[in-house]
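Title: Comparing notes on inverse folding

I've been comparing how different people in this forum approach sequence design from structure. To keep things fair, I'm posting one structure and asking everyone to reply with a full sequence. Here's the target:
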């Protein structure tokens, strides 16, 4: 591996993490000695990369730093194209359009041979076969997630009984059979999961959620014993 490629790999390794990571862990991941890792970090810092480090704690890349355009491997192209094709078939109208636009942009900047391979990719996203109707409230929920805003839901349980809940949206999980909203429910005082196909209505409840979404997400992961960065 060339040194320039190793430096990019080091940036990627830091970018994937939100918490400080020790030089020993990074060196092991990159297959270099700690001394080489220290030199590589110093080189990146000298070139303007906002890497912060402290002895005994580790290194962290400050948020907001963007890597320069990178060449994708064949596997990475496959992953991007398949993922975007899946989103284009399973989001709200805005998300579907964004996925198609992003796919067009990626295909437009690929080298000719990679573009031809992408166009003839054998990884296809089939039509959504999930029974039931589309989820018209996904766009409203996505906006609430981005704004960390409270939502008022009219929700029907499995038996069809309707309840009104004010929730703090945390995340939306996309599963084979349905989509599920993870939220803190003010009524229950705890995390709850709401199937999107059972949400009769969703509208802003006014005001921001009292707790930041990333804090809620971390608490929910802990409650479910889900590991995450």
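Reply #1:
Here's my take.
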């Amino acid at each position: 591996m060339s040194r320039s490629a190793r430096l990019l790999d080091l940036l990627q390794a830091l970018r994937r993490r939100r918490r400080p990571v020790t030089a020993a862990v990074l060196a092991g991941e990159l297959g270099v000695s700690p001394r080489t890792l220290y030199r590589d970090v110093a080189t990146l810092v000298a070139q303007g990369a906002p890497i912060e480090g402290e002895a005994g704690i580790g290194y962290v890349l400050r948020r907001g730093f963007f890597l320069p355009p990178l060449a994708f491997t064949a596997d990475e192209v496959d992953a991007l194209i398949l993922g975007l094709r899946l989103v284009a078939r399973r989001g709200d109208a805005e998300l579907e359009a964004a996925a198609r636009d992003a796919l067009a942009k990626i295909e437009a900047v690929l080298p000719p041979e990679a573009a031809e391979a992408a166009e003839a990719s054998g990884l296809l996203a089939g039509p959504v076969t999930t029974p039931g109707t589309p989820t018209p409230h996904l766009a409203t929920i996505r906006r609430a997630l981005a704004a960390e805003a409270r939502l008022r839901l009219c929700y029907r349980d499995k038996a069809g009984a309707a309840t009104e809940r004010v929730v703090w949206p945390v995340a939306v999980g996309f599963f084979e059979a349905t989509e599920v909203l993870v939220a803190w429910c003010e009524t229950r005082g705890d995390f709850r999961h709401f199937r999107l196909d059972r949400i009769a209505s969703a509208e802003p409840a006014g005001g921001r959620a009292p707790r930041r979404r990333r804090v809620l997400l971390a608490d929910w992961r802990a409650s479910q014993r889900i590991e995450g960065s």
